[in-house]
Amino acid sequence: MHRRSQSESDETEQWKFAIVHVVQAMELAFKEFLRRIHPTFIFESIDKPDKTVSMRMALARLRNPSIGNLPISDTEKAKIDKAFDLRNELTHFEFEFTHDHIQAKFAEIFSFMIFFYKESLGLSTEEFIGEDQLWQIMKAIRTRDELLQRAKAYVARGEVGTAWICQACDEATFVLDEEQCCFCHHKEKIVSCDTCGSNAYESDLIDTTDLFDLDYDEGRTIVANDYGFEDSACAECIGDLKDQVREMRMSQYFEDMERDRM
After folding, report:
1. pTM over 0.85
2. Where are the beta strands (DSSP E) in 188-257?
């Protein structure tokens, strides 16, 4: 058991190393594409070319019809953003991700990169990766696909109840009753929105206290008036809640003015 655990730990470290470097390669590839359009596009400020763009800014310029005009979908962008965040967390040792999750993210970005190199930079596969290395990666990706198909079949049997899109792997394999993705094993608490009562990921709830009337007491911020609402709401409720608080605050304002006149 110890040997197996050590082996899994070593393999997870290798996948962490792989995701950090494939995201770094993607960032450099984005900048190279921009450089080919015009060298100044790799800098944050065209007027002050001293700091190169971040990956997110590079991605925005690639999608900009006036600059890169690349057909990178919102779905692909979301996956790239998540990979970028994962790279940063791994780099700063701020991570709580499973081996399967890291491997899944690598597979997504590596698949995207193969075609980006081909279609956008005009490079053949052998120019950026050896045949043996590619075979090993493809074998891992096939293993991931097999796991994904098993997870989807597990959900499709209908014995586990409702499944949502997983916040970590973007697959419809997060089983609500288990509060865990049966593919990448991401865990997250499912809670009820205090405003509408519907279920939501805990991380999706939005803090509403900044909408309320606040006061300060001995250096502490306290809620002076919450207008009868709870301190969090789901994304579907937040807009209506803002409108209601605004109307109630305005109504209270006019009532106070009328009282002062009397």
Report:
1. no
2. 190-192, 199-201, 206-207, 213-217, 220-225, 232-233
